[in-house]
Amino acid sequence: GGIRAWWKEASVYQIYPASFYDSDGDGLGDIPGIITKVDYLKNLGVDVVWLSPVYESPQKDMGYDISDYRQIHKPYGTIQDIEDLIEILHHRGIKLIMDLVVNHSSDQHAWFKESRSSKSNPFRDWYIWRPPKYDANGNRHPPNNWASIFGGSAWEYDAVTDEYYLHLFCAEQPDLNWENPKVVSAVHDILRFWLDKGVDGFRMDVINVVSKTPGLPDAPITVESSKYQPAMMHYANGPRLHEHLRGLRAILDQYDAFSVGEMPFVSDPEDILQAVGASRKELNMIFQFDIVEMDSSASNKFTIVPWSLQNLRDIVAKWQTCMATGDGWNALFLENHDQPRSVSRFASDRPEFRIHAAKMLATFLALQSGTLFIYQGQELGMANLPKDWGLEEFKDVETINYMNEVAEISKVKSPAFYDNALEGVRAKARDNSRSPFQWDTTTNAGFSTGNPWMRVNDDYLYCNAQSQIDNSESVLTFWRKLLRLRRQMLDVFVYGDFKFLSVEDENLSVYERSHPFAGRALVLCNFSQHPINWIIPDDVRFLCGHENLALCNYGTAASLESLDPDGKREIRFRPYESMIFFAK
Ligand code: ISL
């Protein structure tokens, strides 16, 4: 695990401000609301809060479109509120990291308003402008064929100056031009502004796309049916990325602050180690997307692809191993505000399985090597949106753009095409994780006394924090125990070696964590709704007894002393059962 560091040992809790807690009844969560819930976070046992964007924003993409990096979106509160939050969290021993969204700004940012106003404006080259292309018939086209990640062309025509600007995401999120040193130093100033206020680090939004291939060449045609092509090869991990990352790191180091970089579109360990290897002095860790992409087709995230435990194990083994050998560091996550709920996605949210399934996934995730990230509601086993909700309940710009495209195509294709796409949306839409946090059984799950900006999941009477807090069998209580266990045995669970055992088992994940002096642990997870009988391999038999059982998601493990028909000792796992054994 390399040298020890506070950020390696941390459990981080992600707050999505719109949906956490509304203190003033306007239907939207807010910073004073977060302040009233600090006890809840303390009780859960997290060390760090990652706050998704709360800056001033027209909210075209839920705050990932920032119009002023030094102001707070009014409905979320004031600068004073965020200063209070930092102080109160610090007082309780919890750190705060902010979301840094600097690949792009909002089109309402003063920089962009200046930039678009004329070709000679001093801010013109703070963004990426290019003249149109014209075909033989004199028709105007974008400067290249890049597709936006949110659909359509990545270029928007602006009549004011008769040029296009680049936007990898929405048209209202123009990409900043990191080739311009003034942009880079403006970003550095933003970092210092928040670090001076006491924040402890940043989650850096799509930080690996800031450097584009010079000349912005066309992408190869990989989607025949589309005018616009996926162009990651021209913006992910571009030529100047590492220089930019080192620049950001130099500032963070002055404050003992840390960074987790979001790095989609890259899964080659070599590329990633260049950004997280300790000696490189770039990022501390990255969010890597192999797991959350394993059940989608490469060309369309809404196309469902079956996955197996073998796929999952391969991915985990790959990253656990390469980070250990390359002196990098993992960020562990199964959920965030861009992903559906893990219990629905990777296990089962059926009432008879849901609680055990959520605890099993928690076990699987929390005891790997890396910094642990928990997304709000994951600790309750919150599930995807109900299947019978109408599309009007979905608020995400990505979902809406996609379903508009689908509706167009369905006119030529068929209603079946539409239904199929809708099924993909129900499974994968980002909306799934954005519904309001379920606090209790009162109106709107206690999230707001007003009209929630997004509908509360129908299951809140059954799944809410209040009914889980004092319940020894709840998912929440289980997470508390897990976080405590991880903290008590940092040498084993954070810094120890990692290895999968029994990889021939189709539905049972078994991994071992070990440390030469601190001990040895076995983490076993039944990923299926069926019982599994597991014959204990000789070399770990000494571990698998009641005296070493640190945690079982059913409370007590039923059958540690069972014998199979040949008289070999076996463990009988119930559906989604998980166990942790530990011995010094
Ligand atoms: O969820 C995705 C699209 O389906 C991802 O590709 C996502 O867009 C990508 O991980 C980048 O996400 C981040 O930047 C986006 C913002 O919409 C996401 O919420 C944010 O996490 C643009 O700022």
Automatic annotation (TrEMBL):
Keywords tagged on the record: Maltose metabolism
Domain Glycosyl hydrolase family 13 catalytic: 14-434
GO biological process terms held by the UniProt record: maltose catabolic process; sucrose catabolic process
Gene3D superfamilies: Glycosidases, Golgi alpha-mannosidase II, Oligo-1,6-glucosidase, Domain 2
Domain of life: Eukaryota
GO molecular function: alpha-amylase activity; glucan 1,4-alpha-maltotriohydrolase activity; oligo-1,6-glucosidase activity; sucrose alpha-glucosidase activity
InterPro entries linked to this entry: GH, GH13_cat_dom, Glyco_hydro_b, O16G_dom_2
Pfam families: Alpha-amylase (PF00128)
Keyword Nucleotide-binding found: no
PANTHER family: ALPHA-AMYLASE FAMILY MEMBER, GLYCOSYL HYDROLASE FAMILY 13 CATALYTIC DOMAIN-CONTAINING PROTEIN
Family indicated by similarity: Belongs to the glycosyl hydrolase 13 family.
Entry protein name: Glycosyl hydrolase family 13 catalytic domain-containing protein
Origin species: Orbilia javanica
